[in-house]
Amino acid sequence: MSAEYQVQLEWGPQALRAHPADVVIVADADAGPTGDALRAAPAGLVLAATLEGADAIAEVVLAEQARLGRRASITIAAAGDAWPDGSLRVSVADTLVAGRVVDALAERGIDFHSPQAAVACAAATALRGAAGHLVRAEQAARSVGVSA
């Protein structure tokens, strides 16, 4: 049952309804409007993640868990984008950011994560050397209206 995982990963605003948590980490590579809504989440702690900031995010989460004195529930909300009809368009860039955060959490012993989080982590670690390029390429393609 997914509710038992400490670290959950979901996409879009539905992430917050699916997995309310002590800590919400917003993976939003392009700081878009979907991420704005997620960053306003009603959680004890809301953090904005980037590829470069994953280690710092993990340190803050570890400190929050120590402050709580128990295992903190963590939802990583990958913002994604919107298709012209308004439906959620999953973003590779946001998935890689989320995966980088999952990896940084796991390095600190916070590693009881959902299958979705595990897959994002595997992608981010396998593509570690190319992640920055892939994020920039997706952003560039979307800015000119091309499917990435």
Automatic annotation (TrEMBL):
InterPro entries: ComB-like_sf. Gene3D superfamilies: ComB-like. This is 2-phosphosulfolactate phosphatase. It comes from Agrococcus versicolor.
